[in-house]
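ESCALATION

Customer reports they have been waiting on this structure for their group meeting. Please prioritize. Original submission:
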Amino acid sequence: MEIKKQLEIIKRGTVEIISEKELIVKLEKNRPLVVKAGFDPSAPDIHLGHTVILRKLKHFQDLGHKVVFLIGDFTGMIGDPTGKSEIRKRLTEDEIKENAKTYKKQVFKILDEKTTEVVFNSAWLAGMTLKDTLELVAHVTVSQVLARADFSERYKSGKDISFLEFMYPLLQAYDSVELKADVELGGTDQKFNLLMGRELQKDFGQESQVVIMTPLLVGLDGVNKMSKSLGNHIGIDEKPEEMFGKIMSISDELMFQYYELLTDEGLDEIRKLHPMEAKKKLAKDIVKQYHGENPAEAALKDFENKFQKRDPFTELKLETKPFKPSLADFLVGEKILPSKAEYKRLIEQDAIEVNGARIKEIDFKLEPSKEYCIKVGKKRFLKVLFKA
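Update from on-call: job pushed to the front of the queue and completed.
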């Protein structure tokens, strides 16, 4: 494939390439590039946030390049300090091994198993002697590591930073040396680690890898990056109906980021669709990727039956509640919403309905001895009678 077309595919959904000029030079050599991405098995499941990088690996694979899926079983026992404000809990060797088994199984839902090289960095890191380690440490200074924003903030605020955490970026960089990587992929939060790989390769007499960074996928809360610890994730092994429903709960704005990073659909065509139809298409596409055509079709029908073709209030039991004069006071008081600020945000997004009508007023008033059918967000339904 001509280089211009390769670049178009590679650049989709990327934030930064260091550098595009170097990448073109590598592509012009007309040989398969060694394209690496590392994943520490810190949790037992892969979620859609991880698949942003995995899909980019697949793009390289489809273009005929050599993909190396690196499982950081050794570095995983240290834990990546990126974005952490304190020393993170270390995982045991057994926990790492169990998580790594799951990763290896799940990754081939995206990558071609026959042409993917799966490696574990314990293969070279676990056997290093103290002399080897000291030789490696000699390639980096404390001031270089403290230049990293999250380390700098912790140091200034007097929070502890372990020597193990200092070692992490260097060990990740050494993986690139060992693999002679031409390209390394990572999220924007990995920039420091990725660039260190470039520098260390130079020190070892290798041609520096090109760094390609992708954005961090925003989770279901619409604010934070997708993370299992935050509970805002969608696991690729979740049941088709659950996966479909979660995708349908995201905002229309977030939907386009998901299209760009999690599918190969043309965005211009998607923008011509009604938002509801576009989101159902997105949900079906993603479910199909991980479960197949028939489960994806069944999940679509299940969603339409539950939320579009049937009144969701029909089967709800009528609850009797003490009267509250305002809708905001009721929803926050019953802990249906965490705060009035969240109530206001949902109102502004047309995400609250009362008796079939979208609520526009922040100070919407309720009446005693009256039955209300209240919809909050995509999936919360209440049928309430307020006592006088």
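Sent to customer with the following note: The chain has 17 helices and eleven strands.
Escalation resolved.
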